[in-house]
Design goal:
Helix content: 40-55%
Strand content: 15-25%
Radius of gyration: 20 Å
Number of strands: 11
Largest sheet: 9 strands, mixed
Order of helices and strands: EHEHHEHHEEEHEEHHEHHHHEHE
Length: 382
């Protein structure tokens, strides 16, 4: 198991509050060192803020972009590579996101497309679809969409990007990466009941130690600890693929009948762990962040519709899904509508991070040059 991220949330009232950013970056490094001294690998530290609309009001588009670029420059001077400016919740603000994205490299953000109280926001979904399309056209290879997603029914405090945003006093949360533990649990299991019990036992043992350390950090540095996002995040390692772990249970390749049931099983375990949980605490199936998922995508054992159906019983929605560059705004809009409808109907947090790949069609391979992504065949968007 690895710590995928230590994410510290701060609330800004002005982009000039650089001391808050510096203090959060310093804390992140201290917390990282604390965990490393206990033998944990910490892959990244991150900072997330409240919605940028709250601390960049009444500015022109160029002024907003310049202020955010200044924040990025500060972050880079602090050796911080992940900074989230929160979400936009109006069509006018969502329309600015492609410009922000094009002019930055470590700034992440999102758009809100609905929640349980107000239902689906159809205007925001339309504008989000347009933003995804524009980002794909404005950034090399469409890679800018790695730093943007549309979400519905997501609460503050999720440590994973790009959906993360913060509200309230400064606080930190932890996101994990543990497909190796799932692989170990499922390899020792003869049926689903054993798989469920084995996975729970392993996670309870491992997260107990982790939570104790996090609570020590909170006391020592006098900062609020909001919990562990127990979501099963992916790994780029062949031996720790989420998809290959599924296949240890004997139901065939990922995407075969039984995949939905295994997804539900994993989610039931991670949501019921006896610890302070936060965020999604579900199952992530990011196509281009897991070697096994990408390999099975190449073999067409599952499709975009399958991923949406798995979201109904498990995880976080549609994540790092490559689609044709020729996809229309209307087709993207339809995908986002389905995601939002599921999130609100089932009262669960879901998001969509889609990658239209310029100049490429379904069945062709992506050509990412990124340490965070693996290449796979492009999905059919219809």
């Amino acid at each position: 198991m690895k710590i995928r991220t230590i994410t510290t949330g701060i609330s800004l009232h002005s982009p000039q509050e650089q001391d808050k950013i510096r203090q959060a970056a310093t804390f992140n490094q201290q917390a990282k060192s604390f965990f490393e001294q206990q033998g944990y690998e910490v892959q990244s530290t991150r900072i997330s803020t409240n919605s940028w609309q709250e601390y960049l009001p009444s500015l022109s588009i160029s002024e907003i972009v310049q202020e955010i670029k200044a924040i990025e420059t500060l972050c880079q001077s602090l050796d911080l590579n992940f900074f989230n400016i929160g979400y936009a919740d109006s069509p006018e603000s969502i329309a600015i996101i492609p410009e922000i994205n094009q002019n930055t490299s470590i700034i992440y953000c999102s758009s809100k497309t609905g929640d349980l109280a107000s239902g689906i926001d159809f205007k925001n979904i339309r504008e989000s679809a347009q933003a995804i399309k524009r980002i794909s056209e404005k950034t090399e290879g469409g890679y800018g969409n790695f730093r943007f997603c549309a979400w519905a029914n997501c609460q503050p405090g999720i440590p994973f990007f790009p959906v993360s945003y913060h509200q309230g006093n400064t606080a930190f949360a932890i996101g994990l990466e543990y497909p190796d533990l799932v692989m170990a649990a499922f390899s020792q299991s003869r049926n689903l009941s054993e798989a469920q019990n084995n996975l729970r036992s392993i996670l309870v043992e491992e997260l107990k130690k982790l939570e104790e350390i996090a609570q020590q950090i909170a006391v020592q540095f006098k900062i609020e600890y909001t919990g562990i996002d127990s979501s099963l995040a992916p790994s780029l390692e062949n031996t720790s693929s989420i998809a290959f772990a599924y296949e240890k249970l004997g139901f065939g390749k990922f995407g075969s009948q039984g995949t939905l049931a295994i997804s539900a099983l994993i989610t039931s375990v991670v949501k019921s762990l006896p610890f302070q949980l936060c965020g999604y605490s579900g199952l992530m199936l990011p196509v281009c962040e897991d070697v096994g998922l990408s390999q099975r995508a190449n073999e067409q054992t599952y499709n975009l519709t399958n991923l949406l159906s798995y979201s109904a019983v498990c995880g976080c929605g549609l994540d790092t899904v490559p689609i044709p560059g020729s996809v229309t705004v209307e087709q993207i809009e339809a995908i986002l509508l389905d995601m939002a409808a599921l999130a609100i109907k089932l009262d669960k947090p879901l998001s969509a991070r889609l990658f239209p790949i310029p100049g490429k069609q379904a069945g062709e391979m992506t050509a990412f040059n990124s340490p965070y992504l693996v290449n796979c065949q492009i999905f059919n968007s219809q």
